[in-house]
Amino acid sequence: MNLENIVTWMLKNPGLYPGKHLLPAPRNTPALKPLEPLAQAMIIWRAMTQYVQEKLENGKNVNVRGFGAFAFDISTGLPKIATRAKSMEKTLEHQRLERKHVHKIRLVFVPDAKLKAVLSNYHEKDQLNKPKSQASIYQKSFASIFCNPAPIAAACFLGKDVVDSTLNAIFSAVADLTGYGYSIDLRFGFANISIANKDLRVRFRPDFCQTLNGTDFETKMRQSDMRTSEFWSQSYSQKWAQSSLSKLMQRRPHSSVVRVLAEKTEALKLMSLDLASNGILLKKINTNPYSNY
Question: What percent of the chain has pLDDT over 70?
Fold first, then answer.
């Protein structure tokens, strides 16, 4: 089952997955009309995957509630000794960065406890080497954050409660369908997660994994490189303009044009109702034998 089949199952069982995702939700701008629940869930999923990929590219782990965490497994080696070998392709600064780059990063997926309970044939229980004091997904690996529904809702022009309800229902349906023995295929863009016979397999995009071990990616994970004054001087609007979620829906209709078209549509509806009522009245008059007309 792909995402569309999962959402269809979720909408056909409103008693198991109640919430605001069952009805078309109003958009935050009058230029956009409410969508059907299926299309609404597909847009929210696309924005969520874009959000997770952006956070991973910035060197942060993302924990998706009820589903699992995309985390970095970091192994550290010894620094390389400088040699006198000269290269015409690499500069001296680039060679120094390569010698300092002693961390090897591996992207892994850690299922949530609810999903792991139904994965009876899943043998890769612990993909991260963590201390015994760390018990939750939020503490696992490096710089973990939760999946924030607020920027996802802003990208979709929907309410935060609608996004929360949709994602919770999708991941609850994934856990239930896994327990029923269904095969599931979820595509995140940077990774594909497939569940078959209550076993989970993750395939990450090769070019995305190669960027994690670049010499410049390690600077994104070090928070000490940026000054505190520079970090707090950047406003939320500037961060949102640089985010890929702000460009998710670039083609937006003009609000005044949409409002005029909506008023014309309402006027046509009233005219059609008036003509229909006049037609019924004339029909009654013509069929009346005592009428002089």
Answer: 61
Task: For residue 38, count other CB atoms closer than 10 A to its CB.
Answer: 12
CA dist., res. 61 & res. 98, Å (int): 24
CA distance 12 to 167: 16
Burial 111-138 (b: 16+ CB within 10 A, else e): bbebbeebbeebeeeebbeeeeeeeebe
Question: How far is Cα 198 from Cα 190, in angstroms, rounded to an integer?
Answer: 23
Q: Return the beta strands (E) in the chain as ranges.
A: 61-64, 68-76, 103-111, 144-146, 184-187, 191-196, 199-204
The length of the chain in residues reads 293
Please state the pTM of the whole predicted model: 0.72
> Residue 90 — left, alpha, or beta (φ > 0 → left; ψ -120 to 50 → alpha)?
beta
